[in-house]
Amino acid sequence: MGRVSQAQAQENRKRVVEMASQLFREQGTSVSVADLMKAAGLTHGGFYKQFDSKEALIDEAVSHAFGELAERRATVLEANEGERPAAQRAMIDSYLSPRHRDSAATGCPAAGLATDMARDPGDRGAHRTYADGVSDFADWLATDDQDGMVRLCTMLGAVVLARATKDSPLSDEILEAARAALAR
Asked: What's the pTM value of the predicted model, to 2 decimals?
């Protein structure tokens, strides 16, 4: 089998980071390298040609996930013609929806990765990126009347609880209660 071009190697790396970002949010960072590479459509052996370690991939995947969140916020702001309160309301409504609850792989990294970041002590890049991402999101949610961190904690807690109770009527009730509380 011939060598992969530099462009193809970069595309493969990008695909692995994107897939890891999704799988880690959906299943946690304990996903095996073999399963991750299979999901990306690549061989297990190619992993270490792209990454020094799984921890290095986790760092990149967390950064990628928070980059996606920042892009989503920018898109919502643009869709609301730069009107921040309307964009915040749209983001809150989207965040506290059954669609977001049911889409952990493409959902908020703050919610999807919280447990893994809490369980894995250390001063890795992923922890710094996670903390910075949470802080940035909270800052974006702040208004003159409401603290952004309180809004984010309400949203994140509601999504985590709604996911944990997904197959019961309580799940939708949790999302509705959080939306109502944040609308005040």
From this structure: 0.92
